[in-house]
Amino acid sequence: MPYWRLSGFYLFYFASLGALIPYWSLYLEGLGFSAVAIGQLMAMLMATKIVSPNVWGWIADHTGQRIKIVRLGSLAAAVTFAGVLLGDDYWWLATVMVCFSFFWNATLPQFEVTTLNHLGEEPHRYSSIRLWGSIGFILAVAALGPLLDRYGTNILPGVLVALFACIWLGSLLVPERAAGHLPLTHEPLREVLRSPQVVALLVVCFLMQASHGPYYTFFSIYLQDHDYSRSAIGQLWALGVIAEVGVFLVMHRWVPRFGLRALLLWSLGLAALRWLLVAWFVEQAWIMVAAQLLHAATFGIYHGVAIQLIHRYFRGRHQGRGQALYSSLSFGAGGALGALLSGLTWEPLGAAITFTGAAVVSLLAWWVAWRAIRVS
């Protein structure tokens, strides 16, 4: 199986995230939307993950057409997102975001299954392929910062349409046989979901992504309000993902050495520390640098562990829906709730309190993991 074909998809997919997540809120602010409206629009982007991955995961598991679904979702996402070029009022953008994200959110969980099936008995090597997604994110976020400083945020929709088209082109290079589709069995999914460890893992993932809500929605605006340039903002985002790449390079060694549970607990504890640093020390650039370096733990280690635990718990016919549940409950429901609540608290309570609340949510996730997850 060609390593570079799998890596190429991740490269373009996360390059689009590097353009969308750090800068879309700045684009919306430039259009004159309030913090509440921005939080709602970002929540819509994430909320479709509650439904979309599960719908497409069920179809993929029952048809065996996993890569075909990735291709369809990528193409439809590019076409529907192009609608942002046609209007910029609230309800039009809300409609476009819901339609776009319904298709876009179908692709990554099914591609994750493809990658993990390719790796077979060596899932700990997932990070060596996934790191190319982080590289794509870094390239996009670092390049766009200076461009937006020079030309303004109005260029962002066109850049995103081009990146979504590249995702579709990348999906065409991966053959269907790469998905390694397994025959259907008759074990119902509810049997898997009865496991206390599975429930605990999904709760932890939900809480962890909810704690990221203020970060993904308002971090760029927060920095801009404290006189950071867009170039500096892009560099800080890129720094976090560079740290993430460093973790992905060594995760295949850390997992056998330290175990999944210990790594998960460390990532959750460091997430709480990160949000407290962001909350109370934004004026200190070197502390913001340190906070961004903690992205190595709060996403790199966390995601590397979570994706392997999901693959371990959801086997056979349930692989697609396992990844779909992980995506929908964490990045979908958790991310949407975090974005929505941060939008509601940002102006009345202030940024510091909002990020402190995120730290509390991270500590709650740590407590659940410490009490209920016992896997080595």
| Computed Rg | 19 Å
Number of strands: 0
Sheet bearing the most strands, described?
Answer: none
Distance between the termini: 30 Å
CATH fold assignment:
Growth Hormone, Chain: A
- Helix count from the secondary structure assignment: 17
State the name of the first-level CATH class: Mainly Alpha
Tell me what the structure shows.
By secondary structure, this protein is an all-alpha fold. It has one domain: Up-down Bundle (Growth Hormone, Chain: A), CATH 1.20.1250. The chain has helices at residues 3-30, 35-47, 52-63, 66-81, 90-104, 107-119, 126-151, 156-171, 189-193, 196-211, 213-225, 230-258, 260-280, 285-293, 295-313, 319-349, 351-372. The radius of gyration is 19 Å and the shape is globular.
Which features characterize this protein?
mainly alpha; 17 helices; 376 residues; Growth Hormone, Chain: A
